[in-house]
Amino acid sequence: MTSEQGGSWAQMVAPGRRGAVTVLAGGTLMFAIDTYVTASLLPSAVAEIGGAAFYAWPTTLFLLAAVVASSLTSRVLATVPAARAYLVALAVFAIGALVDAVAPSMAVLLVGRVVQGLGGGLLAAMGYALIRVALPRTLWTRGSAVIAAMWGVALIVGPGLGGVLAGAGQWRWAFGALVVASLLIAAIVPSALRRARAPISPGPFPVGSVLLVAAAAAVLSVAGLAADPLVAGLGLLVALVLLVLFVVHERRTSAAVLPRATFRAGSPLRWIYGLMAVLVGVAGVEAFVPLVGQQVAGLDPVAAGFLGVALGAGWVLGEMISASARRPRPRVLGGPLLLAAGTVLVAVTLVTVDGPVAVALWAVGLLAGGVGIGTAWPHLAASAIGGADPEPGSGTEADENEADKASAAVTTVQMLAVSVGTALGGVALALGGSDPVASARWLFATFAVAAVVGALTARPAARGV
Question: Signal sequence span per UniProt (predicted)?
């Protein structure tokens, strides 16, 4: 049994740790709920304050700001103590939510979304980064599972909260609730993170890397909104070039976002980050499931919404089961295979079966795919968090800073992969033209191919777990 697998769930809530776990989970939950609640209340918000032409930009700008902020997390933690950094992130997030709650126009709402994205990106990235400093190594895998479970909770709470308040004409209170929740979490941060590691010397500011990441995220977000497949495809090509330039720049610069170990000969980090990106990118299909359910199967919005959470529910279920596994490598190999099988099942069903049986098979395939992601994810995340640990006996501050970069990069990779997955889904739908069935077939066939590629390339990542 490896040391990473030696902890127990009881140790996660032991005295002296439950506060830290609550804080890390709570910050991630704020970011995740905001992501889902905004999508459900935005139609009501636009009806009241206008700005229909900019309907997609509240999400686009939020994601762009979050990607940039997550890229800077290691420097923030190197500059100020962990507790203070977390409080700053909560404060920025709460200020953005407050601006959204009182926004009289779309322009003001967009400003609030940018501010929220900056705070939310820090919260999401520090969730993984602070696992290293707030929990012993034996609990890193379970810490990753708890953070992922918050996304499952948000998948249920977010759309429900936004839908109920929007239906009652009180959409602003959804953002108000996030402000209140942020204040409640902030109240326990000083005591919960008081044992976190002292700050270390920050490295050079990664200006070039951050600019390239921001540009790629912006292009991907816009490409995902394009109705014309040629425009969307061109956007994906441009974003790919920017990401290649990002990798080239990261290999050559000392002011980097990713840890140096990522590009070290024989390092498994590149494969671990790569497989994580594929898993999360394929999970982006869940954003389109309610649309497919309504247009292809004729489901009502509520039923289509529940179908849409099948993958997220499977992810949480897979995480909670797999986090206790004492042999992680088989999970890292088997999880992508299960994801591929689930997405292929849905793709084949769309071609061969109709009616209620088809819907049932979709649900099974999506649930299985989510379980596959959850099976591999906590072990990949824990390995990434520790992938740049200092060499034994080195004891240098630079090595510690690299370890912080490895932790923060988990969220940066995750957010970029969400952008890629969403853009890829938009292109696939556009390839089907005006026929909803053809669009759905293109959508799931595209994601099935991506999932199969991930399964075939999982072995190098498994060797590093």
Answer: none
